[in-house]
Design brief:
The protein is an all-alpha fold. The chain has one domain (9-186): Serine Threonine Protein Phosphatase 5, Tetratricopeptide repeat (Alpha Horseshoe), CATH 1.25.40. 80% of the residues lie in helices and 0% in strands. Helix 1 packs antiparallel against helix 6 (156-186). It is globular, with a radius of gyration of 17 Å. The two termini are 26 Å apart. The mean pLDDT is 94. The chain crosses the membrane at residues 6-29, 41-64, 76-96, 108-127, 133-150, 162-190. Keywords: Membrane, Transmembrane, Transmembrane helix.
Length: 192
Amino acid sequence: MVASALAPVALGFFGLGTGYFIIGGTNLFEFPEKGETTRQTLGSWGIWMPGFLQFVTGILLWGGLTWFDAFRDDHLLYMAALAFTAYGVHWFVLGWKMYKGFDPRPDAWMAIAFLLLSILGTVNFYLGGVLPVAVLFFGLTLVYLSEIWARFTGSETGEKSVALFQVLTGIWLMYLTYAVTLDIGLGWALPK
């Protein structure tokens, strides 16, 4: 079996970035105004873009790491597979919860686990010498720190900080989408 350099990470980056723009942007800029149909639209986007695209990316990475040995030379993809799969399932739940209008307060407890996963990703990619992806996980760390604050306190400032870090991390995710795609497609060497 020949190893592949074509890990499908751009798909997961794009999915999460799109979700962060839609959900974070709506909450940060309060447009469109909150209501039942807006909530349902946000929930639908949450399930399909960050949820489905990250989950598919994670499953493809797991398959390439375990069944097909396609990514055997890049051990950092183990962390990527863990993160994409876990964050994908997490977004299925968040999207469904938004769609149905469920209570967001229990998300404070979820955010603790995802904060720890984000810190693990930051450490893995930083020590592995992949600084741009470590920056992504640092952004995720800020999202979940804010999420813990917002959910435990009900603070409007906490809600705005979640949205701000989602939008900023979404911008970085789009950069990573471009960096990976241009590198693979055109042979560019953007940092990633």
